[in-house]
TrEMBL record:
<dbReference type="InterPro" id="IPR001732">
    <property type="entry name" value="UDP-Glc/GDP-Man_DH_N"/>
</dbReference>
<comment type="pathway">
    <text>Nucleotide-sugar biosynthesis; UDP-alpha-D-glucuronate biosynthesis; UDP-alpha-D-glucuronate from UDP-alpha-D-glucose: step 1/1.</text>
</comment>
<dbReference type="InterPro" id="IPR017476">
    <property type="entry name" value="UDP-Glc/GDP-Man"/>
</dbReference>
<dbReference type="InterPro" id="IPR008927">
    <property type="entry name" value="6-PGluconate_DH-like_C_sf"/>
</dbReference>
<feature type="binding site">
    <location>
        <position position="261"/>
    </location>
    <ligand>
        <name>substrate</name>
    </ligand>
</feature>
<dbReference type="GO" id="GO:0051287">
    <property type="term" value="F:NAD binding"/>
</dbReference>
<comment type="similarity">
    <text>Belongs to the UDP-glucose/GDP-mannose dehydrogenase family.</text>
</comment>
<dbReference type="Pfam" id="PF03720">
    <property type="entry name" value="UDPG_MGDP_dh_C"/>
</dbReference>
<keyword id="KW-0520">NAD</keyword>
<feature type="active site" description="Nucleophile">
    <location>
        <position position="264"/>
    </location>
</feature>
<dbReference type="Pfam" id="PF03721">
    <property type="entry name" value="UDPG_MGDP_dh_N"/>
</dbReference>
<dbReference type="GO" id="GO:0000271">
    <property type="term" value="P:polysaccharide biosynthetic process"/>
</dbReference>
<dbReference type="InterPro" id="IPR036220">
    <property type="entry name" value="UDP-Glc/GDP-Man_DH_C_sf"/>
</dbReference>
<dbReference type="GO" id="GO:0006065">
    <property type="term" value="P:UDP-glucuronate biosynthetic process"/>
</dbReference>
<feature type="binding site">
    <location>
        <position position="331"/>
    </location>
    <ligand>
        <name>NAD(+)</name>
    </ligand>
</feature>
<feature type="binding site">
    <location>
        <position position="32"/>
    </location>
    <ligand>
        <name>NAD(+)</name>
    </ligand>
</feature>
<dbReference type="InterPro" id="IPR028357">
    <property type="entry name" value="UDPglc_DH_bac"/>
</dbReference>
Length: 435
């Protein structure tokens, strides 16, 4: 049976969940304190760039199964199930900042007008779901609610698809009643035989951190192997391919690059280390992954400096600013570290990205030259750095680029181009993990 659901937070997690649950046939209100965002969403305008989001957003607005509101009180009263999808950004020390979750929980206490299932989708440290349960019970003096942990694993750029086709759904729960309600909401996924992991709160919370830290470790591992491949004359692409053929390892997340970025891996690895500190458990492997990832970003500049030792007053073209392809998100993007290092060296920087230019302007203002296309960016440049793996950069017209650049230096931080072809055009080429 369809449910009345309120989703608090309209960032990546909250917005995609609101749209997805409405598409499953539920009656959904998406809530955010940002009124302008809410007005835009009600008009069918998404605050994020995401494949298929316009289609799904507008389809569900039109069917009236989905609406957005900035009135948290009435939205909380007018539902049976509350999903919390607000941000948990890192504090200075790496710990997750739970203030947004705490504020929502306080609002829930003020507006608890009957039985509710309260589901935490935000990534939260161990103990948070139990804290939410105890806090609401204490504040409201009521047992007429359940708390459920339901961590989100969607990837930016594929968020809508991931919502409808997850590898698994993880549910931390304590009561049979809440289990039945969650089963009902996710009925559409049951029908396509999505595996469900039913567990306690602590297990659900740890699964999310362990998952992200493991993927960050896998990337960092192959980045180290790339560095070693360079030194010994091996080819990391072939090494990764052969490793991936081992069913126990698998081929995904073995692409060497300029270091992982985004809103999750950097934040969640740091939070996991903090959790280890809190419980006095050695998390040195994850700590080292964090350190190595920083070194990997710096390594891209070292590569450039090896070829062009004096960078001052040189012009560098950066192709790709987003932390990965198919998103406009620049949070923790390796491009930010690379650009900052270049700026320290008095480099003129010309940038292009198919989607992230407006976010880049918010970070760098007039410190960069923003270009409409790759060709404009490389014009008169002394070096070209490929930083994000956008497909359109895989087929660059090297003939034209070779003619336009002042010095033909190409640093390919994602191993996107065919090294031999690039060299045929007279470039000095540096990829990763292959000579
Ligand atoms: C990640 C998790 O995949 C997702 O399950 C979780 O919910 C949120 O964090 P996302 O941040 O969208 O998703 O990006 P993802 O595709 O996982 O890539 C993360 C970073 O790793 C990017 O900077 C990407 O470029 C990098 N990466 C990924 C590599 O350098 N090499 C790889 O082989 C894969």
């Amino acid at each position: 049976m369809s449910k009345k659901i309120t989703v608090i937070g309209t960032g990546y997690v909250g917005l995609v969940a609101a749209i997805g649950f409405a598409d499953f046939g539920n009656d959904v209100i998406g809530v955010d304190i940002d009124k302008e965002k809410i007005d835009n969403l009600n008009k069918g305008i998404s605050p994020i760039y995401e494949q298929s989001i316009y289609e799904y957003l507008n389809r569900n607005l039109k069917s009236k199964r989905l609406r957005f509101s900035s009135d948290i009180s009435s939205s909380l009263k007018d539902c049976e199930v509350i999903f919390i999808g607000v941000g948990t950004p890192p504090k200075e020390n790496g710990e997750a900042d739970l203030s947004q979750v705490e504020n929502v929980v306080k609002e829930i206490c003020k507006n608890l007008n009957g039985y509710k299932t309260i589901v935490l989708k935000s990534t939260v440290p161990i103990g948070t779901n139990r804290w939410v349960k105890d806090y609401i019970k204490k504040e409201t003096n009521s047992d007429n609610f359940d708390v459920v942990s339901n961590p989100e694993f969607l990837r930016e750029g594929r968020a809508i698809n991931d919502f409808f086709h997850p590898d698994r759904v993880v549910i931390g729960y304590e009561s049979e009643k809440s289990k039945e309600i969650i089963e009902d909401i996710y009925k559409s996924l049951y029908l396509i035989e999505t595996p469900f992991v039913w567990c306690n709160y602590e297990t659900a919370e740890l699964i999310k951190y362990a998952n992200n830290a493991f993927l960050a470790t896998k990337i960092t591992f192959i980045n180290q192997i790339a560095n070693l491949s360079e030194a010994i004359g091996a080819n990391v692409i072939q090494v990764a391919k052969a490793m991936g053929m081992d069913g126990r390892i698998g081929p995904k997340f073995l692409h060497a690059g300029p270091g992982y970025g985004g809103s999750c891996f950097p934040k969640d690895t740091k939070a996991l280390v903090e959790i280890g500190n809190k419980y006095n458990v050695n998390m040195s492997l994850v700590k080292e992954v964090i350190n190595l990832n920083e070194l990997q970003k710096n390594k891209m500049i070292h590569k450039l400096k090896r070829i062009l030792p004096d960078l001052s007053n040189k012009c560098v073209a950066i192709l790709g600013l987003a932390f990965k392809a198919e998103t406009d998100d620049m949070r923790e993007s390796p491009a930010i570290s690379i650009i900052n290092k270049l700026l320290e060296n008095n480099v003129t920087i010309k940038v292009h990205d198919p989607k992230a230019i407006s976010n880049a302007k918010q970070i760098f203002g007039d410190k960069l030259i923003y270009c409409d296309n790759a060709i404009e960016a490389v014009n008169d440049a002394d070096a070209l750095m490929l930083v994000t793996d956008w497909n359109e950069y895989r087929n660059l017209n090297l003939n034209i680029i070779a003619k336009l650049m002042k010095n033909k230096i190409l640093i390919d931080t994602r191993n996107m181009l065919d090294m031999e072809k690039v060299k045929e055009h007279g470039f000095i080429y540096e990829g990763l993990g292959r000579r």
